[in-house]
Amino acid sequence: MKAIVIGAGIAGLTAVHTLRKAGVDVVCFERDDVPGGRVISTKRDGFIFDVGAQFFFKNYKTCYSLADELGIGQERCRWAFRVGFPDNGGWRAMVATTNPLEIMQNLPELMHFLKGKSIPFKAQVQAAGVVPTIARRYFDLDFIDFERSLDLDNESFADFVLRLGGKELLEYAFQSIASTMTLEQPEKMSAAYGLGLLVNMIGGLSTYRHGIGTITERLAERNAASIQYNTKVDKIVIENGKVKGVEIKGALVEADIVIPAITATRLLKMAAGLPDTIRKPLEMVTYSACCHVIFALPGALLPEGWYALSTPRMLNSLCSGYTNNAVKSPFYAPSKCTQISCFTYDHHAHELNEKPDEEVKRALVKDLQRFMPHMPEEPLFTEIRRWKEAVCLAPVGMLSAMARMKRQNYQDVKGLFLAGEYLNMPSVESAAASGQAAAQAALRARS
Ligand SMILES: Cc1cc2nc3c(=O)[nH]c(=O)nc-3n(C[C@H](O)[C@H](O)[C@H](O)COP(=O)(O)OP(=O)(O)OC[C@H]3O[C@@H](n4cnc5c(N)ncnc54)[C@H](O)[C@@H]3O)c2cc1C
């Protein structure tokens, strides 16, 4: 059996890894000159930058077991998710957690937060309408086993919060949480996805000591013999309901198995012969954009121990939020230095993605100075990463369509096994699990 994997993001790398362990002859074609896709860390002058994905949630089982297998389980590090919300011209912080011990440890801070103006009393009352549903559905909101949450897939997250809570709860709390996690507005994603992110987020965040990209770097190292970089696949060749191979620069590379581990939009452009049963669900998939700007700074900017600033849309910021990545581990910034990520979102991200670096930098310095006046005019340096497709949004109906497709039509094209985060509730975990599942399905089809 000859297999081709398209893309060396975490989905593609996991598929390659699974196939190689089963002794399959596999080659992975990656367009870029480095592995990782959207799970990638870069290094410069003693700083580590997570330029794509930022953190893993507690239940990323596939990722954690891969990390253990690759010998980096011990490098995992967690940090307190202390977020500052605007309060009467200033900021007030709380630790977002459901861990009873952490709640007790931070109780005075939480009480102080709730007495402030960050989340108005009206919104706190409205929360009473939403929290019981979240608590009741907690175990249904799984990133991989998400079928039990599909009744929440028929309205947007914003409509859900408005229906059970109210406008204040949406505008002061849930909008900024949803936007920070997805880099888009809560109107653009289903309630199932918004709630899935919310319940998983409060279980805690983690990364790897030397960057989140450690996992994709190690996967790529382990499977180096099968990965061909700087090789863009132009077309997936499908004939008579069966995959024939892929086309690269006009030449056909034949294979019995093709696993495209790329975004749904790219796949649609590349595979003209897909049947409606697969094409139509793929057409529902949408992505946010992000012009991710990271400032390396000579000193602290946020108060000690704060990870993030939440900037609700009523503030008209270019960003859904800012994070202080130096709290992740001591290796993320040299001593006394810090780094601040600016997550531009919505139409701002699309606009900034088209502007030159210097203009982007100036716009973000100005935006940050509105909230942190001591932000210096000139950072040590600035790292900019433009993502035209950042986070898959799971708009209303997408998860139901994917669940149906996976159940009934996943193998409608013989030899074609899709992978990518859009097949599950979108996340790094979903991408990794989809790569593993695609490889396992290919192995089952062989035997
Ligand atoms: C700024 C940002 C923050 C995020 N934060 C988080 C977070 O904190 N937690 C979380 O869980 N998720 C987060 N995400 C989302 C997460 O990164 C993705 O869901 C996940 O990495 C998708 O993995 P993938 O392998 O499916 O796709 P990708 O990582 O996009 O991999 C696809 C690969 O295919 C390659 N490719 C594309 N076309 C071709 C072609 N024609 N030929 C050959 N190769 C091709 C690409 O170069 C790429 O390497 C974030 C994303 C961004 C951008």
The main β sheet shows up as: 7 strands, mixed
CA(first)-CA(last) distance: 11 Å
Could you say what the CATH topology of the largest domain is called? Polyamine Oxidase, Chain A, domain 2
CATH homologous superfamily name of the largest domain?
Protoporphyrinogen oxidase, mitochondrial, domain 2
Strand coverage percent: 15-25%
Count of domain modules: 3
Principal-axes shape call: globular
In the CATH hierarchy, what is the class of the largest domain?
A: Alpha Beta
Query: Any idea what the radius of gyration is?
Result: 22 Å
Counted by DSSP, the helix tally is: 15
Structural class: alpha+beta
Quaternary structure classification: single chain
- CATH architecture name of the largest domain: Alpha-Beta Complex
Bound molecules: flavin-adenine dinucleotide
Structure description:
- The protein is an alpha+beta fold and 447 residues long.
- The chain folds into three domains: 2-40 and 213-283 and 396-446, 3-Layer(bba) Sandwich (FAD/NAD(P)-binding domain); 41-118 and 204-209 and 289-388, Polyamine Oxidase, Chain A, domain 2 (Alpha-Beta Complex); 121-181 and 189-199, no CATH class.
- Helix content is 37%, strand content 21%.
- The chain has 15 helices and 19 strands.
- The protein has helices at 10-21, 61-69, 100-105, 107-115, 121-137, 157-164, 167-182, 191-201, 214-222, 264-270, 276-283, 346-352, 357-371, 398-409, 428-446; strands spanning 2-6, 25-29, 41-44, 47-50, 56-57, 76-79, 82-87, 90-95, 205-208, 227-228, 235-239, 242-248, 251-254, 257-260, 290-297, 308-310, 319-324, 338-344, 381-387.
- A hairpin with a 2-residue loop joins strand 3 (41-44) and strand 4.
- Helix 1 (10-21) runs parallel beside helix 9.
- The protein is globular and about 65 Å long.
- The relative contact order is 0.19.
- The structure holds flavin-adenine dinucleotide.
- Residues 6-12, 29-32, 37-39, 52-55, 232-233, 261-263, 266, 290, 292, 387, 390-392, 420-421, 426-428, 431 line the site of flavin-adenine dinucleotide.
